[in-house]
Amino acid sequence: MQLQNNKLIDLQHITKSFDGNMVLDDLCLYIRENEFLTLLGPSGCGKTTTLRIIGGFETPDKGQVLFEGRDISDLPPNKREVNTVFQKYALFPHMTIAENIAFGLKIRKKSASYIKDKIKYALKLVNLDGFENRMPDSLSGGQQQRIAIARAIVNEPKILLLDEPLGALDLKLRQDMQYELIRLKNELGITFIYVTHDQEEALTMSDTIVVMNQGYIQQIGTPESIYNEPENAFVADFIGDSNIIEGIMIKDELVEILGAKFVCVDKGFGENNPVDVVIRPEDIDLLKPEEGTIDGIVTDTIFKGVHYEMCVMARGFEFVVHSTDYFPVDTRVGIRVDPFDIQIMHKPESEDEKAVEIDE
Amino acid sequence: MNNRNNRFLAAPYLIWSAGFIIIPLVMVLYYAFTDFNGSFTVSNVTAIISYVNIKALMLSIAFSLAATFMCLIIAYPLCLILTTVIKNSSSFLSLIFILPMWMNSLLRTYAWQNILERKGVINGILAFLNLPLFYIINKPPAILLGMIYDFLPFMVLPVYNSVSRIDKDLLNAARDLGADPFETFLRVIWPLSLPGVISGITMVFVPSLTTFVISDILGGGKILLIGNVIEQLFTQDSDWNAGAGLSAILMVFIVISMFITAKYDREDIK
User: Among A46, A265, B112, B149, which is disulfide-ready with A215 (CB 3.0 to 4.6 Å)?
Assistant: First the structure.
């Protein structure tokens, strides 16, 4: 995917609070043309508010929203070249599917034949040909969501905003719709801004992920860099399972964890500085005792289908390990981690950078 | 629960509706189509075409339409404001508008008589301020005012219900798709509130059409509505057959408006 460098949307120092609660604090973010950008974070992190500010449903207390370099902060939603797909679809219940899709086009006074062609094209695009005369409440959730997307894209917006559009669908449908959305984006060639709390959705679909917590951006990056190189404990914890251990950076490329020295690839953290260390469960190799860097005892084993999820207690820390090899409970094992699988992070500087328990 | 139990539970209601709704209706129809001696006649019903009766009926329809229209004009913006602008205090504000329903309508109408009288509350204040006095008592505007005041809550309730049930995301979606606030109202809010508007119209139109108390008290007996004509036939002339004949005619108009409501209720959106 070729990403152009011109900024389509530029959020500058956006601050927003509701009833004295700060929701966004000095948020700066730009979105490039043709990007699939995902705002990812737990509920209340400010991701939906950010989307609503871009859509025009909220006005920032401070800061500017630039669209192709033009300040649109005070422009109402109907004057913006963006369209939104709402979480609960928000189809007009008193209109047929065709009337729903035609809504924006009729407002723009397009000709009847143009509207007819567009409806046909949009329904084909979302694989719902022939649904013109159905009423929204006769459609399943997944079908309604496709219509909501069709209704938005016939207006040829520069940007499509999607507010947790798959949140109300069941798992299988959600996975299918993820591929569908990627296909749609490639066919349409427009910019997608996607809001979700589902890290798997974000990793699957995005060009760029913006991880947010408590009104602050925690990290911006590609799915790979967010997953493999989390910048703080919050990101590491929110994206996938991870073991976050306190350690001491002895020197470049050497870190002490639980009293043992591990070789790593990170540099520039100084000498003898406290750090947080992230090790992904699938990056831990379990060996025979004494063969690893430290030894531990398996305390729990769950079969997960693709792999076993095991808890290994070692020197007072419980590692979560994913492995296709089976080790029964109470087995003594050696733990080894390859140097490039050890991710070093600065200690949290504020409350919002700390790891949180997320149980959705 | 099985069917037999269901039927048993419905029995009190069936007895009630038979005794107090169906039998009286049959009696009205019986009296309407018989004369003093009990033999069949249509003269009670055709009496509607006499000048006095047709004038009273037309006047009633005119008053009811005006009262219904005014109630809608007042209630609709109020409901929009209650649901959108000041949603936090809306339950208190809607209570204020519903509260008069808890008072006897006769009392409320007498209160208006006191307020509007030639030497009533309003004119007392106007006289004190040396302003020209205000005489609408015993004139059509007083009756219209009484109807609007009495029946406004019947418009507010259903309209408020239907407007407040509209999902805010639908309004956002309309704005998002390019509709300005007026187009959003025209294409989304109004059509979705129509079931409430229709039942509000019926609930104001029907009691306005049949009232005789309001026209009696605020019209000073000078303006005869169809309700007053029927009341006089029953109470002063003791001519039950003639009264029932005109009541039957009035019922036709009510049934027509009920049919309109039922039609739109079926098209009601959940």
Answer: A46
